[in-house]
Amino acid sequence: MTQHTAEGIRLNKFISDAGICSRREADKLIEQGRVLVNGKLPEVGARIKGKDKIQVDGKTLQWNQVAPVYLALNKPAGIETTTDLSQRDNIIRFVNYPERIFPIGRLDKDSEGLIFLTNDGDIVNKILRAGNKHEKEYIVTVDRSINEDFVQKMSSGVSILGVNTKKCFVEQLGANKFRIILTQGMNRQIRRMTETLGFEVQTLQRIRIMNITLAKLPLGQWRELTDEEIATLQSQVADSAKTEEGSVSKKKTSTSQTSSSQPARKKSPSNNRPPRKEGGTGKKSGFGANDAKGGRGQRGASKGPGVKKSGGKSSAGARGASRNAPAAKGGGRKRR
């Protein structure tokens, strides 16, 4: 819920709390003239109070916001991690959630695995900032056999996009398969690293983000995070920087950050190990991997199958009421 203070709150935070987008994206909306405060164009960094009327693209935002939403999706390959509904296979239409949400970070269209979606702009910023060093774990297969030299080079850092990647944990799992744990989020980082070493990625799956793992979540389905998972996640980002100043610039990364951690190849450090206990299953969609291409069941806007929910009651409490929203025409959820 948005809190009222004597000084008011920043406009971008209000828009983010409303579940429209992240704070950074909200600033872009303001710059593009798509936001009005009391009928006038505001400046980036403007503060607002409860009496102000805020509109985004002509839609008035309410001060009483909905409860925060946190989802974990096992994204199939072929789904674009974008909120742009003009993109045919966008993640928002695929999930078909009854409230406005957006993904935290990106996962390549050709990649699959764990990705979060939320309406909480604060946690988006904290997780995404490179300087906060939050772990993401992947299983990767490449087009030919790898060896100790490949593992050593990947873990020590590879020059891509004009900078050296941070040292990281890499473990060989098979003839052409390895596990890698990153705290960076450079564009197509793993694919670029392997290409630099003369290999080509065949499959790439993200299996963990911080304390949340895929566990038994089937491909193409999503679930709500449990209260326990959310509490742990919030505690891990409690001291994380939310602003750009909290991040390490790409230029500085190449010189100062590559020596900040030690490579580990055969044994994972304790802080790189996935948690042993998994959260509950929450509610899942009925969307299978084979439905990835045709499953664009946005509310009243698409044809083809949408996401159906199954499973027991969620522990999310207040969020459960929103699950009874009418299903999208031509697919989507059934009323419970």
From TrEMBL:
InterPro entries: PsdUridine_s_RsuA/RluB/E/F_cat, PsdUridine_synth_cat_dom_sf, PsdUridine_synth_RsuA/RluA, PsdUridine_synth_RsuA/RluB/E/F, PsdUridine_synth_RsuA/RluB_CS, RsuA_PseudoU_synthase, S4_RNA-bd, S4_RNA-bd_sf. It holds the Pfam family S4. Its EC number is 5.4.99.-. Keywords: Isomerase, RNA-binding. Residues 237-336 are annotated as: Disordered. It is an enzyme of class 5 (isomerase). GO terms for molecular function: 23S rRNA pseudouridine(2604) synthase activity; RNA binding. It catalyses: uridine(2604) in 23S rRNA = pseudouridine(2604) in 23S rRNA; uridine(35) in tRNA(Tyr) = pseudouridine(35) in tRNA(Tyr). It comes from the Bacteria. Residues 300-328 have a biased composition (Low complexity). Residues 9-74 form the RNA-binding S4 domain. GO terms for biological process: enzyme-directed rRNA pseudouridine synthesis. Belongs to the pseudouridine synthase RsuA family. This is Pseudouridine synthase.
